[in-house]
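Chapter review: from sequence to fold.
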Amino acid sequence: MSDNQSFSELNATAQEKAITDFVPFYVSLLNNEELDVMASFDFNHVIADINRTIMDVSNQVPAEICAFSAKFNHEDYKTLLSQLPQTFFANGNPTTDWREWYVAETTKLDPFATL
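The token string follows.
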């Protein structure tokens, strides 16, 4: 299994896995108001649409929120993941755990950050 593939280089099955695995992480960032790093890579301004969808269904249980957002905002997640400097294994798993990646990216933006 090769690693260090960008999201765009993954096949469709691996992209689906990457999105499904990413959405709960993203929702947790939104819930904790920690989207600063994500916003720095949101060149196509898809975060606002994703957040609106999540807020619209916020009365659901977390698994339902994630499933609905992954489906409804599928293209937005594809766009966002294509812009993030994260690499993946061929199966769609990130080569760096999302939380570790986020801390590293935060440190790049603000070396004094304390995530």
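Two observations follow directly from the output. The radius of gyration is 14 Å. The first helix runs from residue 12 to 31.
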